[in-house]
Write a structure and sequence with these properties.
This protein is mainly α. It has seven helices and no strands. The radius of gyration is 18 Å and the shape is globular.
Length: 177
């Protein structure tokens, strides 16, 4: 799923959970955790791509599209290999739970806003196909990935953002009642 939708879903989850809690979650912090996996994964490659565009080595037309990138092409250059590794690290539910547990041990309390990261992973599992970064949620123990559908398909983008709008309207209505 695209990074903006991840942030919006994580924020919606935090807003919804806040209706049940005495000490509310920080919605912006949950939203940040919701986008962090993609920022960690893709920021280096986007910096590289835009520097290549800025210096005339590439054009915007050369940027890969989510539905048109073959897995083999992602591993040809070191920057793409690094991106694949960072994607595995940041999209692993195993590492999420390990880090969540470590933070819990250090702070002696759960940081529930980190749940935005887990929501990100869970959303990505069915919305990524083998063609574009299938989610390695069991990494480093397993390379198995679910072959979902592409989030970049226009029908899914429309349904997803419509659902986000509906959820935020419902959350707003419940807060005014």
């Amino acid at each position: 799923m695209d990074i903006f939708a991840h942030g919006l879903w994580a924020g919606a989850a935090a807003k919804g959970i806040n209706k049940k809690l005495e000490k509310p979650l920080k919605v912006w912090t949950a939203t940040l955790w919701g986008v962090l996996p993609d920022i960690l994964s893709f920021a280096p490659v986007f910096v590289w791509l835009f520097l290549n565009i800025a210096f005339g080595d590439m054009s915007f037309g050369d940027l890969p599209r989510p539905d048109a990138t073959e897995p083999a092409t992602r591993d040809t250059l070191p920057i793409f290999r690094a991106t694949s590794f960072l994607y595995s690290v940041s999209h692993s539910a195993v590492l999420f739970f390990a880090i969540f547990g470590l933070v819990f041990l250090i702070l002696r309390r759960p940081v529930w806003e980190m749940g935005g990261w887990l929501i990100h992973i869970l959303i990505d599992i069915p919305t990524h196909s083998y063609k574009f970064y299938p989610t390695p949620f069991l990494w480093p123990f397993s390379e198995w990935k679910f072959d979902g559908f592409s989030w970049g398909q226009p029908w899914f983008l429309a349904v997803n953002y419509l659902a986000i709008v509906v959820v935020y309207i419902l959350l707003r209505k419940k807060s005014t009642i």
